[in-house]
Amino acid sequence: MKTFSWKLPRRAKLLLFVVVAVIIYILYLGTKTNSMRRLGDDSSSSEIIIDSVYKDMQKPVLGRPKNDPKTLGQGGHAVRLMEPGEREKQEESIQIYAVNQYVSEKISLHRKIKDTRHEQCISRPPFDYRNMPTTSVVIAFYNEGWTTLIRTIFSVLHSSPAGLLREVILVDDYSDKPYLKEQLEKYLKDIERVRLIRTVKREGLVRARLLGASHATGDVLTFLDCHCECMDGWLEPLLERIMQEESAVVVPVIDTIDYDTFQYYYGGHEPQIGGFDWRLTFQWHSIPYAERKRRKGPVDPIRSPTMAGGLFAVSKAYFSHIGTYDTGMEIWGGENLELSFRVWMCGGVLETIPCSHVGHVFPKQAPYPRPKFLPNTLRAAEVWMDEYKKHFYIRNPPAKYEKYGDISERISLREHLDCKSFKWYLENIYPDLHVPEDKPGSYGSLHNRGFNTYCLDYAPPPSNPTGGKVAMYGCHGQGGNQFFEYTSRHEIRFNSEKEMCMSAMKSEDGVTMLDCVEDHREVPELQIWIQDGELFRNPATNKCVEGEVKGQNALTFIRDCDENSKAQQWFWME
Predict the structure, then answer these.
(1) Which terminus of the chain has fewer Cβ atoms in its 10 Å neighbourhood, N or C?
(2) In 3-state terms, the chain is what percent helix, strand and coil (to 5)?
(3) Within this chain, do residues 90 and 204 fall inside the same structural domain, yes or no?
(4) What is the pLDDT of residues 262-285, one digit of tens each?
(5) Phi first, then psi: what are they for 302, rounded to 5°?
Protein backbone atom coordinates (compact mmCIF):
# COMPACT_ATOMS: atom_id res chain seq x y z
CA MET A 1 0.00 0.00 0.00
CA LYS A 2 1.25 3.39 -1.04
CA THR A 3 1.59 6.13 1.53
CA PHE A 4 1.14 9.74 0.50
CA SER A 5 2.52 12.73 2.47
CA TRP A 6 1.28 16.34 1.94
CA LYS A 7 4.00 18.93 2.29
CA LEU A 8 3.82 22.74 1.79
CA PRO A 9 6.68 24.72 0.39
CA ARG A 10 8.50 26.89 2.92
CA ARG A 11 7.10 30.16 1.42
CA ALA A 12 3.52 28.87 1.61
CA LYS A 13 4.03 27.81 5.25
CA LEU A 14 5.23 31.32 6.12
CA LEU A 15 2.26 32.90 4.39
CA LEU A 16 -0.15 30.59 6.22
CA PHE A 17 1.47 31.45 9.55
CA VAL A 18 1.05 35.20 8.90
CA VAL A 19 -2.61 34.81 7.95
CA VAL A 20 -3.39 32.77 11.07
CA ALA A 21 -1.55 35.30 13.27
CA VAL A 22 -3.53 38.21 11.80
CA ILE A 23 -6.82 36.36 12.36
CA ILE A 24 -5.91 35.62 15.99
CA TYR A 25 -4.92 39.28 16.56
CA ILE A 26 -8.20 40.55 15.10
CA LEU A 27 -10.17 38.13 17.29
CA TYR A 28 -8.18 39.34 20.31
CA LEU A 29 -8.89 42.99 19.53
CA GLY A 30 -12.56 42.20 19.14
CA THR A 31 -12.68 40.51 22.53
CA LYS A 32 -10.76 43.39 24.16
CA THR A 33 -12.92 46.08 22.58
CA ASN A 34 -16.12 44.33 23.59
CA SER A 35 -14.97 44.57 27.19
CA MET A 36 -14.95 48.38 26.87
CA ARG A 37 -17.89 50.74 26.51
CA ARG A 38 -18.33 51.43 22.79
CA LEU A 39 -20.82 54.12 22.06
CA GLY A 40 -21.97 55.89 18.92
CA ASP A 41 -25.05 56.17 16.74
CA ASP A 42 -25.72 54.58 13.39
CA SER A 43 -24.78 57.77 11.55
CA SER A 44 -21.32 57.97 13.16
CA SER A 45 -18.34 57.18 11.00
CA SER A 46 -16.45 56.01 14.08
CA GLU A 47 -17.28 54.83 17.56
CA ILE A 48 -16.11 56.57 20.71
CA ILE A 49 -14.04 54.25 22.87
CA ILE A 50 -14.08 54.98 26.57
CA ASP A 51 -10.61 53.92 27.69
CA SER A 52 -8.05 55.29 30.13
CA VAL A 53 -6.85 57.90 27.64
CA TYR A 54 -10.41 59.14 27.12
CA LYS A 55 -11.01 59.33 30.86
CA ASP A 56 -7.83 61.34 31.38
CA MET A 57 -8.98 63.81 28.72
CA GLN A 58 -12.39 64.01 30.35
CA LYS A 59 -11.11 64.80 33.84
CA PRO A 60 -11.12 68.46 34.89
CA VAL A 61 -7.85 70.36 34.74
CA LEU A 62 -8.01 70.83 38.49
CA GLY A 63 -9.89 68.65 40.93
CA ARG A 64 -12.33 70.44 43.17
CA PRO A 65 -11.64 70.24 46.92
CA LYS A 66 -14.33 68.46 48.83
CA ASN A 67 -16.80 71.07 49.99
CA ASP A 68 -19.01 70.78 53.02
CA PRO A 69 -22.59 71.03 51.68
CA LYS A 70 -23.36 73.26 54.67
CA THR A 71 -20.75 75.82 53.59
CA LEU A 72 -22.25 79.22 52.81
CA GLY A 73 -23.51 79.53 49.25
CA GLN A 74 -22.83 75.89 48.36
CA GLY A 75 -24.72 74.66 45.30
CA GLY A 76 -25.52 78.25 44.35
CA HIS A 77 -27.68 79.05 47.36
CA ALA A 78 -28.12 82.62 48.59
CA VAL A 79 -26.02 84.00 51.44
CA ARG A 80 -27.76 86.48 53.73
CA LEU A 81 -25.72 87.82 56.64
CA MET A 82 -27.93 89.46 59.23
CA GLU A 83 -25.64 89.93 62.22
CA PRO A 84 -25.51 93.48 63.69
CA GLY A 85 -23.15 95.71 61.72
CA GLU A 86 -22.75 93.31 58.83
CA ARG A 87 -25.24 95.01 56.55
CA GLU A 88 -23.24 98.24 56.74
CA LYS A 89 -20.08 96.38 55.68
CA GLN A 90 -21.96 94.81 52.80
CA GLU A 91 -23.32 98.15 51.59
CA GLU A 92 -19.83 99.60 51.74
CA SER A 93 -18.44 96.81 49.55
CA ILE A 94 -21.31 97.26 47.07
CA GLN A 95 -20.46 100.96 46.83
CA ILE A 96 -16.85 100.11 45.96
CA TYR A 97 -17.29 97.08 43.68
CA ALA A 98 -20.97 97.27 42.61
CA VAL A 99 -21.28 93.70 44.01
CA ASN A 100 -21.33 92.40 47.56
CA GLN A 101 -17.67 91.45 47.93
CA TYR A 102 -18.20 91.11 51.68
CA VAL A 103 -20.55 88.17 51.07
CA SER A 104 -18.35 86.85 48.26
CA GLU A 105 -15.47 86.52 50.75
CA LYS A 106 -17.61 84.18 52.89
CA ILE A 107 -18.23 81.78 49.97
CA SER A 108 -15.76 79.08 48.95
CA LEU A 109 -13.57 79.96 45.98
CA HIS A 110 -14.27 76.41 44.80
CA ARG A 111 -18.03 76.23 45.26
CA LYS A 112 -19.86 73.83 42.99
CA ILE A 113 -23.04 74.91 41.24
CA LYS A 114 -25.80 72.31 41.14
CA ASP A 115 -26.24 70.89 37.65
CA THR A 116 -29.88 71.58 36.76
CA ARG A 117 -29.57 71.38 32.99
CA HIS A 118 -32.08 69.58 30.77
CA GLU A 119 -31.97 65.80 31.19
CA GLN A 120 -30.93 65.40 27.54
CA CYS A 121 -27.79 67.42 28.27
CA ILE A 122 -26.75 64.95 30.94
CA SER A 123 -27.85 61.62 29.43
CA ARG A 124 -26.53 62.27 25.92
CA PRO A 125 -23.78 60.11 24.30
CA PRO A 126 -20.18 60.85 25.26
CA PHE A 127 -18.28 63.70 23.63
CA ASP A 128 -15.57 62.98 21.09
CA TYR A 129 -12.72 64.44 23.13
CA ARG A 130 -10.06 63.06 20.79
CA ASN A 131 -11.31 65.08 17.83
CA MET A 132 -12.78 68.18 19.47
CA PRO A 133 -10.90 71.48 19.18
CA THR A 134 -8.98 72.81 22.16
CA THR A 135 -9.63 76.22 23.67
CA SER A 136 -7.94 79.12 25.40
CA VAL A 137 -10.19 80.94 27.88
CA VAL A 138 -9.50 84.69 27.83
CA ILE A 139 -10.58 86.75 30.85
CA ALA A 140 -9.94 90.50 30.81
CA PHE A 141 -10.33 92.45 34.06
CA TYR A 142 -9.96 95.91 35.49
CA ASN A 143 -9.97 96.51 39.27
CA GLU A 144 -12.05 93.39 39.82
CA GLY A 145 -12.71 92.23 43.38
CA TRP A 146 -10.34 89.51 44.57
CA THR A 147 -12.77 86.71 45.34
CA THR A 148 -14.98 87.11 42.27
CA LEU A 149 -11.91 87.03 40.02
CA ILE A 150 -10.25 84.04 41.72
CA ARG A 151 -13.54 82.12 41.90
CA THR A 152 -13.96 82.65 38.13
CA ILE A 153 -10.52 81.15 37.49
CA PHE A 154 -11.09 78.13 39.71
CA SER A 155 -14.56 77.60 38.29
CA VAL A 156 -13.08 77.28 34.80
CA LEU A 157 -10.35 74.91 35.97
CA HIS A 158 -12.72 72.74 38.01
CA SER A 159 -15.30 72.34 35.22
CA SER A 160 -13.19 72.17 32.04
CA PRO A 161 -11.84 68.87 30.67
CA ALA A 162 -8.05 68.57 30.69
CA GLY A 163 -8.06 67.39 27.09
CA LEU A 164 -9.84 70.52 25.86
CA LEU A 165 -8.58 73.45 27.96
CA ARG A 166 -5.17 74.65 26.84
CA GLU A 167 -4.95 77.63 29.18
CA VAL A 168 -6.68 80.43 31.03
CA ILE A 169 -5.27 83.78 29.93
CA LEU A 170 -5.88 86.63 32.35
CA VAL A 171 -5.46 90.13 30.92
CA ASP A 172 -5.07 92.87 33.52
CA ASP A 173 -6.20 96.06 31.81
CA TYR A 174 -4.01 98.39 33.87
CA SER A 175 -5.68 97.84 37.26
CA ASP A 176 -4.49 100.03 40.11
CA LYS A 177 -5.69 97.94 43.07
CA PRO A 178 -2.65 96.81 45.13
CA TYR A 179 -3.93 93.26 45.60
CA LEU A 180 -3.98 92.80 41.80
CA LYS A 181 -0.23 93.40 41.57
CA GLU A 182 2.41 91.22 43.24
CA GLN A 183 -0.14 89.43 45.43
CA LEU A 184 -2.01 88.16 42.38
CA GLU A 185 1.20 87.07 40.62
CA LYS A 186 2.32 85.03 43.62
CA TYR A 187 -1.11 83.45 44.00
CA LEU A 188 -1.28 82.34 40.38
CA LYS A 189 2.30 81.22 39.75
CA ASP A 190 1.77 77.59 40.82
CA ILE A 191 -1.72 77.13 39.36
CA GLU A 192 -1.61 74.91 36.31
CA ARG A 193 -2.46 76.40 32.90
CA VAL A 194 -3.07 79.96 34.11
CA ARG A 195 -1.18 82.86 32.54
CA LEU A 196 -1.26 86.54 33.54
CA ILE A 197 -0.68 89.30 30.98
CA ARG A 198 -0.72 93.00 31.77
CA THR A 199 -1.36 95.99 29.53
CA VAL A 200 0.96 98.99 29.83
CA LYS A 201 -1.94 101.46 29.66
CA ARG A 202 -5.72 101.36 29.88
CA GLU A 203 -6.88 99.68 26.69
CA GLY A 204 -10.55 98.84 27.27
CA LEU A 205 -12.32 95.52 26.81
CA VAL A 206 -11.87 95.15 23.05
CA ARG A 207 -8.11 95.66 22.88
CA ALA A 208 -7.48 93.82 26.17
CA ARG A 209 -9.27 90.77 24.82
CA LEU A 210 -7.36 90.97 21.55
CA LEU A 211 -4.12 91.09 23.50
CA GLY A 212 -5.13 87.89 25.28
CA ALA A 213 -6.19 86.28 22.00
CA SER A 214 -2.78 87.05 20.48
CA HIS A 215 -1.16 84.83 23.16
CA ALA A 216 -3.69 82.00 22.84
CA THR A 217 -2.55 78.54 21.70
CA GLY A 218 -5.97 76.86 21.59
CA ASP A 219 -8.01 76.27 18.42
CA VAL A 220 -10.94 78.17 19.89
CA LEU A 221 -11.09 81.45 21.79
CA THR A 222 -13.54 81.39 24.69
CA PHE A 223 -14.14 84.83 26.19
CA LEU A 224 -15.52 85.12 29.73
CA ASP A 225 -16.13 88.04 32.04
CA CYS A 226 -14.16 88.19 35.29
CA HIS A 227 -17.12 87.46 37.61
CA CYS A 228 -18.51 84.13 36.40
CA GLU A 229 -19.13 80.62 37.68
CA CYS A 230 -19.34 77.71 35.25
CA MET A 231 -21.72 74.82 35.61
CA ASP A 232 -20.19 71.38 35.03
CA GLY A 233 -20.43 70.45 31.36
CA TRP A 234 -20.39 74.06 30.16
CA LEU A 235 -17.43 73.81 27.78
CA GLU A 236 -17.97 70.64 25.75
CA PRO A 237 -21.25 71.72 24.05
CA LEU A 238 -19.63 74.97 22.86
CA LEU A 239 -16.59 73.25 21.37
CA GLU A 240 -18.62 70.43 19.85
CA ARG A 241 -20.76 72.94 17.96
CA ILE A 242 -17.67 74.70 16.60
CA MET A 243 -16.27 71.30 15.60
CA GLN A 244 -19.49 70.76 13.61
CA GLU A 245 -19.58 74.27 12.13
CA GLU A 246 -16.44 76.40 12.24
CA SER A 247 -18.32 79.58 11.32
CA ALA A 248 -20.58 79.24 14.38
CA VAL A 249 -20.08 81.83 17.12
CA VAL A 250 -21.59 80.20 20.18
CA VAL A 251 -22.87 81.58 23.46
CA PRO A 252 -23.65 79.73 26.69
CA VAL A 253 -26.93 80.30 28.49
CA ILE A 254 -26.04 83.18 30.80
CA ASP A 255 -27.54 82.50 34.20
CA THR A 256 -27.81 85.27 36.79
CA ILE A 257 -25.79 85.36 39.99
CA ASP A 258 -27.30 87.90 42.37
CA TYR A 259 -24.88 90.75 43.07
CA ASP A 260 -25.98 90.93 46.72
CA THR A 261 -26.59 87.34 47.89
CA PHE A 262 -24.65 85.44 45.20
CA GLN A 263 -27.62 83.18 44.64
CA TYR A 264 -27.35 81.32 41.34
CA TYR A 265 -30.54 81.63 39.28
CA TYR A 266 -30.82 78.93 36.63
CA GLY A 267 -31.91 80.47 33.33
CA GLY A 268 -34.25 77.63 32.43
CA HIS A 269 -34.38 75.08 29.63
CA GLU A 270 -35.61 77.68 27.15
CA PRO A 271 -33.43 80.76 27.64
CA GLN A 272 -33.93 84.21 26.23
CA ILE A 273 -31.90 85.28 23.22
CA GLY A 274 -30.35 88.56 22.15
CA GLY A 275 -31.90 91.45 20.28
CA PHE A 276 -31.52 95.23 20.22
CA ASP A 277 -33.53 98.42 20.07
CA TRP A 278 -33.03 101.23 17.58
CA ARG A 279 -30.74 103.12 19.95
CA LEU A 280 -28.45 100.08 19.48
CA THR A 281 -28.86 98.96 23.06
CA PHE A 282 -28.75 95.20 23.61
CA GLN A 283 -32.03 93.64 24.74
CA TRP A 284 -33.15 90.17 25.80
CA HIS A 285 -36.24 88.61 24.26
CA SER A 286 -38.00 85.26 24.11
CA ILE A 287 -37.40 82.70 21.38
CA PRO A 288 -39.72 83.52 18.45
CA TYR A 289 -42.21 80.99 17.12
CA ALA A 290 -40.34 80.45 13.82
CA GLU A 291 -37.16 79.49 15.70
CA ARG A 292 -39.04 77.12 18.00
CA LYS A 293 -40.51 75.46 14.93
CA ARG A 294 -37.13 75.20 13.18
CA ARG A 295 -35.43 73.40 16.08
CA LYS A 296 -35.93 69.64 16.30
CA GLY A 297 -35.40 69.24 20.05
CA PRO A 298 -35.14 71.15 23.34
CA VAL A 299 -31.33 71.15 23.46
CA ASP A 300 -30.66 72.07 19.83
CA PRO A 301 -28.74 75.31 19.22
CA ILE A 302 -30.88 78.44 19.21
CA ARG A 303 -30.21 81.09 16.56
CA SER A 304 -29.87 84.51 18.15
CA PRO A 305 -29.89 87.86 16.29
CA THR A 306 -27.34 89.33 18.71
CA MET A 307 -25.34 88.40 21.80
CA ALA A 308 -24.65 90.17 25.07
CA GLY A 309 -20.93 89.92 24.27
CA GLY A 310 -19.42 89.07 27.63
CA LEU A 311 -19.35 85.29 27.16
CA PHE A 312 -18.86 83.52 23.84
CA ALA A 313 -16.63 81.08 21.96
CA VAL A 314 -15.34 81.36 18.40
CA SER A 315 -12.85 79.49 16.25
CA LYS A 316 -9.57 81.41 16.40
CA ALA A 317 -9.11 81.05 12.64
CA TYR A 318 -12.68 82.18 11.89
CA PHE A 319 -12.42 85.12 14.30
CA SER A 320 -9.36 86.29 12.39
CA HIS A 321 -11.09 85.70 9.04
CA ILE A 322 -14.03 87.97 9.87
CA GLY A 323 -11.87 90.76 11.30
CA THR A 324 -11.78 90.05 15.08
CA TYR A 325 -13.03 93.15 16.94
CA ASP A 326 -13.32 96.71 15.67
CA THR A 327 -10.25 98.15 17.41
CA GLY A 328 -11.56 101.67 16.86
CA MET A 329 -14.05 101.05 19.67
CA GLU A 330 -13.02 102.34 23.08
CA ILE A 331 -13.46 100.89 26.62
CA TRP A 332 -16.63 98.82 26.14
CA GLY A 333 -20.15 99.02 24.75
CA GLY A 334 -21.45 98.43 21.24
CA GLU A 335 -18.80 95.88 20.27
CA ASN A 336 -21.24 93.02 20.87
CA LEU A 337 -23.82 94.31 18.37
CA GLU A 338 -21.16 95.17 15.80
CA LEU A 339 -19.77 91.63 15.97
CA SER A 340 -23.28 90.13 15.89
CA PHE A 341 -24.22 92.03 12.73
CA ARG A 342 -20.92 91.09 11.10
CA VAL A 343 -21.21 87.38 11.89
CA TRP A 344 -24.68 87.05 10.39
CA MET A 345 -24.20 89.38 7.44
CA CYS A 346 -20.87 87.85 6.44
CA GLY A 347 -21.85 84.19 6.34
CA GLY A 348 -21.58 82.96 9.92
CA VAL A 349 -24.16 81.92 12.50
CA LEU A 350 -24.67 83.11 16.07
CA GLU A 351 -26.21 80.58 18.43
CA THR A 352 -27.07 80.04 22.07
CA ILE A 353 -26.21 76.51 23.22
CA PRO A 354 -28.83 75.28 25.75
CA CYS A 355 -26.57 72.63 27.33
CA SER A 356 -23.87 75.18 28.22
CA HIS A 357 -24.61 77.23 31.34
CA VAL A 358 -22.41 79.91 32.89
CA GLY A 359 -23.46 82.13 35.78
CA HIS A 360 -22.66 85.83 35.60
CA VAL A 361 -22.71 88.36 38.42
CA PHE A 362 -24.71 91.30 37.07
CA PRO A 363 -23.51 94.25 39.18
CA LYS A 364 -25.84 96.75 40.79
CA GLN A 365 -24.56 99.34 38.36
CA ALA A 366 -21.79 99.43 35.78
CA PRO A 367 -18.54 99.05 37.77
CA TYR A 368 -16.92 101.71 35.62
CA PRO A 369 -18.37 104.13 33.04
CA ARG A 370 -18.54 103.56 29.30
CA PRO A 371 -18.08 107.11 27.99
CA LYS A 372 -17.49 105.86 24.44
CA PHE A 373 -20.75 103.96 24.06
CA LEU A 374 -22.23 106.48 21.60
CA PRO A 375 -19.20 106.70 19.26
CA ASN A 376 -18.83 102.92 19.44
CA THR A 377 -22.44 102.35 18.38
CA LEU A 378 -22.05 105.05 15.74
CA ARG A 379 -19.24 103.03 14.19
CA ALA A 380 -21.49 99.97 14.10
CA ALA A 381 -24.36 101.94 12.56
CA GLU A 382 -22.21 103.60 9.91
CA VAL A 383 -20.51 100.38 8.80
CA TRP A 384 -23.38 97.87 8.94
CA MET A 385 -26.85 99.43 9.05
CA ASP A 386 -27.04 100.96 5.55
CA GLU A 387 -30.15 103.14 5.11
CA TYR A 388 -31.57 101.89 8.42
CA LYS A 389 -29.03 103.93 10.38
CA LYS A 390 -31.43 106.88 10.12
CA HIS A 391 -33.57 105.26 12.83
CA PHE A 392 -30.54 105.18 15.12
CA TYR A 393 -29.75 108.85 14.51
CA ILE A 394 -33.36 109.88 15.08
CA ARG A 395 -33.36 108.22 18.51
CA ASN A 396 -29.95 109.58 19.47
CA PRO A 397 -30.06 113.36 18.83
CA PRO A 398 -26.49 113.94 20.13
CA ALA A 399 -25.14 111.35 17.64
CA LYS A 400 -24.99 113.81 14.75
CA TYR A 401 -22.41 115.87 16.68
CA GLU A 402 -20.30 112.90 17.83
CA LYS A 403 -16.98 111.94 16.25
CA TYR A 404 -16.46 108.24 15.69
CA GLY A 405 -13.07 108.01 13.98
CA ASP A 406 -11.92 106.43 10.75
CA ILE A 407 -14.06 103.50 9.59
CA SER A 408 -12.57 103.03 6.12
CA GLU A 409 -10.80 99.82 7.15
CA ARG A 410 -14.04 98.30 8.46
CA ILE A 411 -15.94 99.27 5.29
CA SER A 412 -13.19 97.61 3.23
CA LEU A 413 -13.50 94.52 5.40
CA ARG A 414 -17.24 94.36 4.68
CA GLU A 415 -16.58 94.60 0.97
CA HIS A 416 -13.80 92.00 1.11
CA LEU A 417 -16.03 89.51 2.94
CA ASP A 418 -18.86 90.14 0.46
CA CYS A 419 -21.32 90.66 3.29
CA LYS A 420 -25.08 90.91 2.86
CA SER A 421 -27.19 94.03 3.45
CA PHE A 422 -28.80 95.09 6.71
CA LYS A 423 -32.16 94.70 4.97
CA TRP A 424 -31.30 91.02 4.46
CA TYR A 425 -30.39 90.76 8.17
CA LEU A 426 -33.73 92.23 9.27
CA GLU A 427 -35.76 90.06 6.91
CA ASN A 428 -33.94 86.77 7.53
CA ILE A 429 -32.37 86.94 10.99
CA TYR A 430 -34.54 89.38 12.95
CA PRO A 431 -37.93 89.53 11.18
CA ASP A 432 -39.76 90.06 14.47
CA LEU A 433 -38.09 93.43 15.06
CA HIS A 434 -40.46 96.33 14.41
CA VAL A 435 -38.92 98.68 11.87
CA PRO A 436 -39.99 102.24 12.68
CA GLU A 437 -41.89 104.29 10.13
CA ASP A 438 -40.44 107.56 11.42
CA LYS A 439 -42.68 109.74 9.29
CA PRO A 440 -41.81 113.45 9.62
CA GLY A 441 -44.06 115.12 12.18
CA SER A 442 -44.92 111.81 13.86
CA TYR A 443 -41.94 111.07 16.07
CA GLY A 444 -39.73 112.67 18.69
CA SER A 445 -40.86 114.27 21.92
CA LEU A 446 -44.53 115.07 22.60
CA HIS A 447 -44.84 118.55 24.13
CA ASN A 448 -47.87 119.61 26.12
CA ARG A 449 -49.33 123.05 25.24
CA GLY A 450 -50.89 123.58 28.64
CA PHE A 451 -47.59 122.99 30.44
CA ASN A 452 -45.18 124.07 27.73
CA THR A 453 -41.97 123.02 29.43
CA TYR A 454 -43.23 119.47 29.96
CA CYS A 455 -43.07 116.47 27.64
CA LEU A 456 -44.57 112.99 27.69
CA ASP A 457 -42.13 110.78 29.60
CA TYR A 458 -41.94 107.09 30.49
CA ALA A 459 -39.51 105.65 33.03
CA PRO A 460 -39.79 101.83 32.88
CA PRO A 461 -40.03 100.20 36.33
CA PRO A 462 -36.80 98.35 37.24
CA SER A 463 -38.45 94.95 37.73
CA ASN A 464 -40.54 94.92 34.55
CA PRO A 465 -40.44 97.59 31.84
CA THR A 466 -44.17 97.34 31.13
CA GLY A 467 -46.99 98.47 33.39
CA GLY A 468 -45.56 101.75 34.69
CA LYS A 469 -47.41 105.05 34.57
CA VAL A 470 -46.83 107.37 31.62
CA ALA A 471 -46.06 110.77 33.11
CA MET A 472 -44.61 114.13 32.11
CA TYR A 473 -41.18 115.56 32.79
CA GLY A 474 -39.23 118.65 31.85
CA CYS A 475 -38.42 118.51 28.13
CA HIS A 476 -34.72 117.75 27.54
CA GLY A 477 -34.48 116.97 23.81
CA GLN A 478 -32.17 113.97 24.31
CA GLY A 479 -34.60 111.26 23.22
CA GLY A 480 -34.47 108.33 25.63
CA ASN A 481 -37.47 108.34 27.98
CA GLN A 482 -39.08 111.09 25.92
CA PHE A 483 -38.87 109.55 22.46
CA PHE A 484 -42.14 108.27 21.00
CA GLU A 485 -43.32 107.27 17.54
CA TYR A 486 -46.85 107.57 16.13
CA THR A 487 -47.53 104.84 13.58
CA SER A 488 -49.95 104.43 10.68
CA ARG A 489 -51.71 101.84 12.87
CA HIS A 490 -52.47 104.63 15.39
CA GLU A 491 -50.05 103.35 18.03
CA ILE A 492 -47.88 105.57 20.21
CA ARG A 493 -44.75 103.43 20.47
CA PHE A 494 -41.91 103.60 22.95
CA ASN A 495 -39.01 101.30 22.09
CA SER A 496 -36.48 101.75 24.83
CA GLU A 497 -35.69 98.34 26.41
CA LYS A 498 -38.46 96.67 24.37
CA GLU A 499 -41.29 97.52 22.01
CA MET A 500 -44.06 99.01 24.14
CA CYS A 501 -47.24 100.80 23.18
CA MET A 502 -49.14 103.44 25.13
CA SER A 503 -52.36 101.99 26.52
CA ALA A 504 -55.38 103.49 28.23
CA MET A 505 -56.22 102.18 31.68
CA LYS A 506 -59.98 101.87 32.10
CA SER A 507 -59.91 101.27 35.84
CA GLU A 508 -57.76 104.25 36.86
CA ASP A 509 -58.27 106.69 33.99
CA GLY A 510 -54.50 106.57 33.64
CA VAL A 511 -52.07 105.83 30.85
CA THR A 512 -49.53 102.98 30.87
CA MET A 513 -47.15 101.12 28.57
CA LEU A 514 -47.83 97.53 27.53
CA ASP A 515 -46.24 95.16 25.02
CA CYS A 516 -47.08 95.98 21.42
CA VAL A 517 -48.57 93.22 19.33
CA GLU A 518 -46.71 91.91 16.28
CA ASP A 519 -47.08 93.99 13.14
CA HIS A 520 -49.27 91.36 11.46
CA ARG A 521 -51.80 91.29 14.33
CA GLU A 522 -54.69 93.64 15.03
CA VAL A 523 -53.91 96.45 17.48
CA PRO A 524 -55.88 96.18 20.78
CA GLU A 525 -58.46 98.95 21.16
CA LEU A 526 -56.88 100.29 24.35
CA GLN A 527 -53.64 100.88 22.39
CA ILE A 528 -55.27 102.83 19.55
CA TRP A 529 -54.93 106.62 19.63
CA ILE A 530 -56.71 108.62 16.96
CA GLN A 531 -54.99 111.96 16.35
CA ASP A 532 -57.56 114.72 15.95
CA GLY A 533 -55.62 117.94 15.48
CA GLU A 534 -53.48 118.02 18.62
CA LEU A 535 -55.70 115.68 20.62
CA PHE A 536 -55.07 111.95 20.99
CA ARG A 537 -58.34 110.08 21.52
CA ASN A 538 -58.68 106.44 22.55
CA PRO A 539 -61.77 104.96 20.80
CA ALA A 540 -62.25 102.21 23.39
CA THR A 541 -62.88 104.78 26.15
CA ASN A 542 -63.68 107.76 23.91
CA LYS A 543 -61.33 109.81 26.10
CA CYS A 544 -58.24 111.90 25.40
CA VAL A 545 -54.78 112.08 26.93
CA GLU A 546 -54.47 115.00 29.35
CA GLY A 547 -51.45 116.30 31.23
CA GLU A 548 -51.69 117.51 34.81
CA VAL A 549 -49.12 119.16 37.08
CA LYS A 550 -49.74 119.31 40.83
CA GLY A 551 -46.80 120.34 42.94
CA GLN A 552 -43.94 117.95 42.19
CA ASN A 553 -46.15 115.52 40.30
CA ALA A 554 -46.61 115.76 36.54
CA LEU A 555 -48.91 112.98 35.39
CA THR A 556 -51.13 111.96 32.49
CA PHE A 557 -54.74 110.81 32.54
CA ILE A 558 -57.51 109.98 30.09
CA ARG A 559 -60.33 112.49 30.41
CA ASP A 560 -63.41 113.48 28.42
CA CYS A 561 -62.13 115.09 25.24
CA ASP A 562 -62.15 118.89 25.18
CA GLU A 563 -60.62 120.54 22.14
CA ASN A 564 -60.33 123.83 24.06
CA SER A 565 -58.24 122.30 26.87
CA LYS A 566 -54.58 123.09 26.30
CA ALA A 567 -53.69 120.30 28.74
CA GLN A 568 -55.04 117.86 26.12
CA GLN A 569 -53.11 119.42 23.25
CA TRP A 570 -49.83 117.78 22.23
CA PHE A 571 -47.37 118.55 19.45
CA TRP A 572 -44.30 116.74 18.10
CA MET A 573 -40.77 118.08 18.22
CA GLU A 574 -38.08 116.11 16.39
Answers:
(1) N
(2) 30, 25, 45
(3) yes
(4) 999 998 899 999 999 999 999 999
(5) -115, 120
